[in-house]
Amino acid sequence: MHIKLRSIPGAIVAPKGFSTGGIFCDIKRLGTGKGSNKGAKRDLTLIVSEVPCSVAGMFTTNQVCAAPVKVCVPRVAKGIAQAVVVNSGNANACTGRQGMKDALEMVRLAEKALGIADGLALVGSTGRIGVTMPMVEVRSGIAGAAKVLGSTPDHAAQAAEAIMTSDTRPKEIAVEFRLGGKTVRLGGICKGAGMIQPGMSANGARPAALPGGLHATMLSFITTDAAIEARGLQAALREAVAHSFNRITVDGDMSTNDTVLVLANGLAGNDKKSCSGLKSKDFATFRAALQHVCLELAKKIVRDGEGVHRVVTVKVSGARSIAEADAAARAVANSALVKTSWHGGDPNWGRIIDALGYSPATIAEDRVDIGYSASGSRKVLWSLRRGQPTKASFRDLCAAVAPREFDLHIRLNLGKGEALMYAADLTEEYVDFNKGDVTDPGSLGG
Amino acid sequence: MHIKLRSIPGAIVAPKGFSTGGIFCDIKRLGTGKGSNKGAKRDLTLIVSEVPCSVAGMFTTNQVCAAPVKVCVPRVAKGIAQAVVVNSGNANACTGRQGMKDALEMVRLAEKALGIADGLALVGSTGRIGVTMPMVEVRSGIAGAAKVLGSTPDHAAQAAEAIMTSDTRPKEIAVEFRLGGKTVRLGGICKGAGMIQPGMSANGARPAALPGGLHATMLSFITTDAAIEARGLQAALREAVAHSFNRITVDGDMSTNDTVLVLANGLAGNDKKSCSGLKSKDFATFRAALQHVCLELAKKIVRDGEGVHRVVTVKVSGARSIAEADAAARAVANSALVKTSWHGGDPNWGRIIDALGYSPATIAEDRVDIGYSASGSRKVLWSLRRGQPTKASFRDLCAAVAPREFDLHIRLNLGKGEALMYAADLTEEYVDFNKGDVTDPGSLGG
User: Is 70 exceeded by the pLDDT of residue A95?
Assistant: First the structure.
């Protein structure tokens, strides 16, 4: 479905009735500039709506699941929320009972500071794994953040900064579109960088058969002034995430904290009932807009992945099933040898067909086509047809894989299964960044 | 079973009746020194026994399987062979009908040059994928190699060199032991470096349920003067590979060419019948010796993996099943974040428990123990017990992961499943090496 979307400023405060702000409260205990919201990078934010919202969420399916995720799942299931408190610097993962206590204290403090009803705040955390939350700092942070709330693009930018860890830049988007005769807005922020191959579900439950390699912390917070019931919102989010955040990989590692939350406060005044019917035109419009926002945010995560130089869209078609197409795309997208060849600008089809061959997908070597195109283009330069090298020149193939972004086309020619992955190269910078600084105890990543 | 093994020189020619030699025939078509066996690295070898041998083999389960593997599988199934021709520089993989024709020509030329019966030669190849064999060079190479055969340690060293690709050093071993009252010898050579996570079976067929991530080219050629029937030899090799070559990973990529071959010529004069009964003491002795040789060769591959600085033995116990233990060990051994932390000397348990959490194995966060010991030691320094950080100091933990080799102990405490993997760190050198040289078309790797 094609809908008309207009880009607007303001990210998560572009929709009516939302405010936010970010503050530095020294969650990493660097011991400098505490309580200030200048200088050091912000590490805590509040996002709040004037009125209670319909809410939907998708969460990591990692069996090791952080306390904030455990707090959110049952709250989101109730379908109503009004605010989110988010911190970076500490993931509150593998922190046992104290972690749960701290996450619950965070939502209670947020509810109190914002003057909203009990049970209506949600929480997200990212940063070190296995270190308990520095609650002295967090308490002062929540109180401080509540005092700097506002609804300007600058406020949204503060929030986008406060959720960053190894991200090199804040990631935000907002769009405006017509829905049921009204103008509605949809905005979002996200963070990613490393430990990125989300595989999220609505309740953290793993699917019966796990896809090839569900495996970052990615956090995304999306707001809208559309009126839509929670059930419809969840259905739209589940589908949007399946086509966006769950289709990206930086390093193949799935985090303990992956979370996407959407708050819909209805202040645009469209007809809520009409937008909530899964077969209605309004729902289709909203779903398309949400999918656009999720996909743009997801791509920003891959582009800003740790040490990433090149982003490759791996498009597999002709698999025996969608599950096999997904498995084939993930095997290629996560192969160390394929990823290093992308980094080198090397159109190496041998490593690609090797990865296809060991993937759980069925392949027939003499049916495989491999080619390249510019991002989104259908003009493919084939390097392999039916398992045999084409006459495409090495020079032309190198030119096809030289851009910072390109599409890799793989046709298995065995069936109708299709899948794609937004993948990244593997660079010396990724290794250098992640080999860590052993003078700094504590695990980054959740 | 503990048996007394004595290290001896001579590798594959240590056993009676074997001869070998290596030559440079310019398979990569560098255009220099052709026909010489001095100067440039050797790239072709012949290994031959005075008499026909019992033979056993294990081969890649990659669906994209190179021509030499396709030629070997039915020949090995007949249980008898006398020689092997091996080249480096070209994998003869993804080379279609021409590839099969070339591989068959190679075995025929070897049989003729060595004066052995039709059908008794085998072939192994490693190097570029997708480039047809330079048969002019290969023909002169086989003829040349047949003229330089001998049975000194220097000849074995030539063979070990001729099978190298990105290996930095030749890998060889030989042992002597008593079997049925006779002294027998077992020797081997191997190569590895990148595209290393073998998952081999006797006929290349994939197991019904694929383990977590079967995925290098590794080649290994083993000779013995023990007398043993082919069936017993295959049973012993299958078990030895399951505990050695199929338990290593450098980069998680399984090659199109992985091959292990064992030739047993019986010239030691032990009682063949007694050694071939799967329940006999002699068989148990031979099996233990073969397992030792395979494991030592497999470890050499990990230690000499591309860019490898550290080798980590990942020991998982307490899984619900052996398959779950294997999946857990492979998830940890192949996690980019875990591997980079090893490179950095960072005792980061957060990344380890994260990888366990997204692995197909069932885990309970509050039951997981993670610790380190010196290689082969039972004195474990625990960093995590029952999901909680221990009081072990960060300094002591750093010291535990500082050596070039150490053991990582993971107890899931849910059952009795155990598995281990010999794994490697991920370094800038790996990335730099594999990002390739786009001035050199053609795919290294098979």
Answer: yes
| Cβ partners under 8 Å of residue B268, min gap 6 | B15, B16, B179, B182, B183, B184, B185, B224, B225, B226, B227
Locate the chain B residue with the closest alpha carbon to A434. Answer: B340
CB within 8 Å of A380: residues ≥ 6 apart: A371, A372, A373, A409
A349 vs B contacts (CB less than 8 Å): 130, 443
Q: Which of A64, A357, A438 sits opposite B64 (nearest CB)?
A: A357
Mean pLDDT of chain B: 90
Name the 3-class secondary structure at B208. coil
Q: What residue of B is the nearest CA neighbor of A425?
A: B435
Q: How far is CA A88 from CA A95, A164, B402, in A?
A: 16, 6, 30
A104-108 mean pLDDT: 98
- Sorted by sequence, the CB contacts under 8 Å of residue A143 that are 6+ apart come out as A109, A113
Q: Is the pLDDT of residue A337 over 80?
A: yes
Alpha-carbon distance A375 to A400, whole Å? 10
In chain B, where the domains are located: 6-303, 311-426
For helices B349-358 and B322-333, angle between their N-to-C axes, nearest 10 degrees: 130
Please check whether residue A196 touches B, CB under 8 A. no
pLDDT value of residue A208: 41
Q: Which residues of B touch A356 (CB under 8 A)?
A: 63-64
CA B110/CA B119 separation, integer angstroms: 10
Q: Do A130 and B210 touch (CB under 8 A)?
A: no
Q: How far B157 CA lies from chain A's nearest CA (Å)?
A: 29
What CATH fold (topology level) applies to the domain A6-303?
L-amino peptidase D-ALA esterase/amidase (3.60.70)
Give how far the C-alpha of residue B199 lies from the chain's centroid of Cα atoms, to the nearest Å.
Answer: 10
pLDDT at B237: 96
Strand ranges of the sheet holding B405-411, from the earlier edge strand across to the other edge: B388-389, B381-385, B369-374, B405-411, B311-319, B417-424
Distant-in-sequence, close-in-space partners of A136: CB < 8 Å, separation ≥ 6: none
- DSSP 8-class letter at A365: G
Residue A341 forms contact with B (CB below 8 Å): yes
User: Over the stretch B399-429, which tens digit does the pLDDT of each residue have?
Assistant: 999 999 999 999 999 999 999 999 999 999 9
The per-residue pLDDT for A129 is 86
Token reading at B25: 């025939």
* Res. B441: pLDDT tops 80: no
- pLDDT tens for residues B256-299? 899 999 999 999 999 999 898 889 999 999 999 999 999 999 99
What dotted CATH number matches A311-426? 3.10.20.340
A358 and B199: CB-CB below 8 Å?
Answer: yes
CA distance to partner chain A, nearest, from residue B61 (Å):
7
Beta strand B259-264 with B219-224: parallel, antiparallel or unpaired?
parallel
- What's the CA gap between B224 and B228, in Å, rounded? 10
Cα–Cα distance for residue pair A43/A38, rounded to 1 Å: 11
**What number of CA atoms fall less than 13 Å from residue A367's CA on the CB side?**
15
* Conformation bin of residue A108: beta by default, left when phi > 0, alpha when psi is -120 to 50: alpha
Name the residue with tokens 């080649």.
Answer: B219
DSSP label at B431?
H
- pTM for this one? 0.88
Partner residue opposite B251 with nearest CB, options A336, A441, A443: A336
Find the mean pLDDT for residues A183-200. Answer: 84
Residue B75 to residue B124: CA distance in whole angstroms: 13
Residue of A nearest to B348 (CA): A443
Predicted local confidence at residue A287, as pLDDT: 96
Say yes or no for a CB contact (<8 Å) between A195 and B354. Answer: yes
Kind and range of the H or E element at A96?
A: helix A96-114
**Tokens representing B84?**
């092997």
ipTM of the prediction: 0.86
